[in-house]
Structures are given as structure tokens and as C-alpha cells.
What does this fold into?
Amino acid sequence: SGLTRLDFLGLAGLGTGALVLGGCSALSSTRQNPPTARSTYKVAEYVLEASVLKLNLGGPSVETWGYGEGLPGPEIRLQQGETLRVRLRNRLPEGTSVHWHGVPLPNGMDGVPGVTQDPVAAGESFTYEFRADDPGTYMYHSHSGLQLDRGLYGPLIVEPENETLSYDREYVLTIDDWLDGVDGVPEDTYEKLRAGEGEMAGMEGMSGMGGTGGAEPEPDVKYPVYLINGKPPEEPEELEVGRGDTVRLRLVNPSSATIYRVALAGHRMTVTHTDGQPVEPVETDALRVGMGERYDVIVKAANPGVWQLAARAEGTRKMARAVLRYEGTNGPQPPPDLEPRELGSEMLSYNALRSAPGIDGVEAGSPDRVVPITLRGDEETYVWTINGQAFPDADPIEAGRGERVRFEMENTTMMPHPMHLHGHFFRVDNGTGRGPIKDTVLVDPKQRLAFDWLADNPGDWAFHCHQAYHQEGGMMRVVKVA
Ligand code: C2O
Ligand code: CU
It folds into this structure.
């Protein structure tokens, strides 16, 4: 497993550089104290290696690409106000990049090849460095083509300087979809979609798509497979809790094409953050997590036993799962396909969320600029557009620096689109004036949805659908803040 910075706290003040552990960890961290006592500048330093790796899908193992030894990539965790410095080493056979999803940072560090930087060529390195001023649950991932879908992602946690939540245990759950065949080549999946073979809706059509690259799929593997922290449903991660514990779960969805409906049997969840930003706590049985979204929830461990935590892939009967086990409880795991009763209840909606009081954000109703955004797609050709244009043959969207901008989106298609804006947070307009602060928002089929944001971070920022195949099919724009 990846080392966290805590492993190296003892090195603070030694002024060491990054430390790489040969073979067994792609990531390491050292702490550096400032050379002068006056400075409060702190650097969390990591080395991140993108390379070919083997992944166990609950029986057969597949070769794919990732950061470090497996999926997800190693957790990167730092303190608000610290500077993150990550040396990316590209051991892949093609160019790559790292995007720090959700983090407002200087444009040059945003990791979008062709927009904010050249791709980092095979065999080359690149150092990302930025100050993490906004605490929250984020992720990092490749922004090169469909590489994200091979497994090039990991969680990024920025802890607040003053933590107001109190909890006994914390688990980060990254929920991924493994869509296609044994060789896991997303470009083949994309070509099939373009050719009109297979479909993404509900992904029932995906099960026949295994065995790309000439390899026969193992008969016992039915694609897609859904993974929590890289683990298939047959070998789930066990989350241990003590009776009476307050448990924080950070739910992260790096999937290319799956919205999850998440519930924990025998327990309710209290949502505390959307995309890392605090909301007024709201209790629910179940919630939806779209591609690119993150939710932080608190669970009161007051119901001893062994419980299913299920993330059902929307539109299917399949799920990713983990198991919540109370200490001292030796019972067997619930069966892999056991659906928690809580999943049958209503999903939490954006309308039920209010940003926490005192959160800075753009107030609704007073935009300097209103931008209509029409989302269209053609299932036949798999071309997806924003206002009729498919990236990269698309004009930039202009926003004046300092302007309050309102994006009024209309989804004309029959697919949900998780729309993600880089470099900024926005406020979802849910009619209350206090909609949740987010960076990724699901626009459901035939739905209209608006968000407001302050264009205070100059540069060229990607705005796109986080369904990776829609993004690849053109549903992306550059937003120019100048
Ligand atoms: Cu998660 Cu444009 O990215
Ligand atoms: Cu989409």
C-alpha cells in the first residue's frame, strides 16, 4: 500500500527530497520544514509513478495502467495551506498528465494536455506544485484521452486547518467500473460505441463486450465489474468499526460511465460535504454519486453486526460493495448481491441540500454573464456536443475575470451528464439560494439545471461531461477566464 505522509513525519526538518521505494510503492512522502523559522511554508512531497500493473478482478487478473501497485492510486493527504509537490514519472507507453479534480489551483498545474500543458511523454517526468488552500475530498486522475478508465486515478484529501467534525474512524471509498474486456482497453470500447456496437445506457449491452485484444474473457467474469477501492464484490474491503463510533466515509466516484446508488444496510447516513464543500448535515438512507462527484457522510455505528455497503450501478442490478463489520462480530459476510433495503427508498436530491452557513459562494440571481449550455448527443455516431460543437473543434466560452457567471444547462438527451468545471467551485441553483457548492453536477435526461460561479481564477479551464466516453466524443469546452 502507498505510504502516507505520516510515515515520514519523523523526517521533518531533515531537508530531504522525495523518497522512492523501489518496486513496492510508487508513492512516498517526506516532510520538509522551512529553512527559516519565520516561514510557515510547508511542502508535502510525493513521487507518483504511472505504470502498467496487474489487477485482480475476483479470479482472473488483468493488465492495466495505474498509479503504484493497484487500484486506486495511493492516497495523497495533506493539510490545508500546505503545498503539494508531486513528481509524476511516466512509465506508460504513451503521453499522460495528472489533473487534480476539484482543486482550485493555478492554471498551469491543472494537467489538461493540449490546454494547460503538453502531455508528459513516455519515460519523462513532470512536477506539479500548488498550494492546497481549500480543504475537502478530491481525486486525481489522468486527463489524457480515456486513460482514466484504465485505472489512472486516486484519492486526494485536504484536511482543514481546524476540523469541526469529530469522528472516530474514517474510510475513503473509491467506487469504479470495470467496463470492458480482459485487456481493459477503453479505446476499443470507444471504437465499438462509435461503430454502434454496444451501448452505455444501463450498460446491459456491455456484458457482451469482453475479450478485447483477442483474449478470451474468463467464463466466470461478467463485465462490467464494479470495484470499491479496487476490490471486486467477491473480495470486498472490510471496514471495521467499534460500537458507538462515529464513522466518516468519503465516497469518491472516478468511474468512466457509472452513477452509483449508495446505501449502508442497517444504518442511515448524514451527508456533510458535497464535492468536499460543507453542507448543512442532512440524513438519508441512500444517495446518488455521479462520475466525478464526491460525498462525505457520517455514520453512527449503533447497530452491531456485519452489514452490506452497496453501490448499485444505476440502470443495472449489479453493484460494488464493501462490508461494515463491528469489532468482535464474527458472522459471515452478507452475500455479494444482497441489496440493502435502504436502496429501495428515495435518493437524496440536490434540492434537499443547502450549503453550510458562512460558505463563500456566488449568490444566485445577480449574474454578470449568463451562458446557455445545450447538451446534445447522437447515440449513432457517438458525437456529443455543447451548443452544437464537439471538442476539439469548438470555440472557447469567454468569462471576464471577476465576473459572476451563470451556466444555464439544458440536457436534451436521454442520458445523464455529470458536468464538471475546472479551477472553480460553483453553487447549484436548487431554488433556495443556498444550493450546495460543488464542482461536478449531474444533469439528468431532459432536465434543466443552472449553476453560478465566480470567475476569479484566470486561465483556460476545461468544462466537460465526466462520462469519459461522452467527453472523448466531444462534450467538452474550454472556458477562458481573462
Ligand atoms: Cu475529473 Cu476534467 O476532470
Ligand atoms: Cu455525458
Q: What stands out?
A: The pocket of copper (II) ion (ligand 2) is lined by residues 415, 417, 465, 467, 470, 475 (CB under 6 Å). The two ends are 42 Å apart (CA to CA). Residues 96 and 144 are 6 Å apart (CA to CA). The helical segments are 186-194, 468-472.
